[in-house]
Write a structure and sequence with these properties.
Helix content: 40-55%
CATH topology: Rossmann fold
CATH architecture: 3-Layer(aba) Sandwich
Number of helices: 8
Distance between the termini: 48 Å
Structural class: mainly alpha
Number of strands: 3
Order of helices and strands: HHEHHEHHHEH
Mean pLDDT: 87
Strand order of the largest sheet: 1-2-3
Length: 208
Amino acid sequence: MLRPSRHSRLLPYQFVSLLLVQISPGRPILKVDLYGTALVLEEFGNVIARGGSAVVIASQSGHRLPPLSSEQNAILATTPVDELLSLPMLQLNQIKNPLHAYQISKRGNSLRVMAEAVRWGKRGARVNTISPGIIITPLANDELAGPRGSGYRRMIEISPAGRAYTPDEVGTVGALLKGDDGAFITGSDFQMDGGVTAVYWYGELAPK
């Protein structure tokens, strides 16, 4: 008989994401987070009405990826969706581990949205990304209580904000981007990580 696990209270998409991070060699992450997002952007971009707006959730993790070349940025942003996973830079011998796959997928989300904003703009619509840090959700609580919890807690403690944040705070920025007050914002990425990325590159977490 299957017994309820500590993940049984997670929402389905959270459970799938958790499994991908824990057991995937990287390819499923690219398929879900990179290819899947690009496909949705393309299809919605074909039908979005004038005045429409969308927000894609990327991640602070995409901003920890070392800088890509201008050519790599361009191909992640503009390669046709059905050719995306065939790019040389996304093959198994180039993806180091699941974290690397997640980082490049989330960087790709931000780049893809920037490129799609040009196309969406011709239809009178807007699209942006939010790159959140650690949001207090059931999944985050599981991670904080798990083997990597001490690293996550330290990340929060030394961040300029000194805390994690709530889904409602992300929703506030999402509402701005979707509403009339954000009508001039498109093709942009909003980092909502309490300054963790700043500490990663220029503070105590900076790579040595």
